[in-house]
């Protein structure tokens, strides 16, 4: 199993973050390229080499990223679905190799 909370904030949103996040969290822990999806591209293309046949990949996602991450998962040979947070917002993508 791989469980991760990768950076998922688009570059253009960094300036709008709350000061206690923007000013004190390492930028590399927050920012994931122009669209916020850079680490998902890398994870979904490489994670399968580190998992057993039935291994599970769990990734936290940002608000509104579920469609893009699910599409990338399917394009990379994963069966994927989302898990909502307590507010009912898609917060985790769970993926297994097809």
**CATH architecture assignment:** 3-Layer(aba) Sandwich
Number of strands: 4
H-E string: EHHEHEE
Highest-level CATH class: Alpha Beta
The CATH superfamily is identified as Vaccinia Virus protein VP39
Q: What's the structural domain tally?
A: 1
Q: How large is the count of helical segments?
A: 3
Oligomer: single chain
Question: Biggest sheet, open or closed, and with what strands and sense?
Answer: 4 strands, mixed
Structural class: alpha+beta
Helix content: 10-25%
Strand content: 15-25%
Report the CATH topology name.
Rossmann fold
Anisotropy-based shape: globular
Gap between N and C termini? 15 Å
Mean pLDDT: 94
| Gyration radius, rounded | 14 Å
Q: What would you note in describing this structure?
A:
By secondary structure, the protein is α+β, with helices and mostly antiparallel strands. The chain has a single domain (2-97), classed as Rossmann fold. The chain is 23% helix and 23% strand. The protein contains three helices and four strands. It has helices at 19-22, 38-46, 66-75; strands at residues 2-4, 56-60, 78-84, 90-97. The chain has a four-stranded mixed sheet, covered by helices on one side. β3 and β4 form a beta hairpin. The longest helix has 10 residues, at 66-75. It is globular, with a radius of gyration of 14 Å.
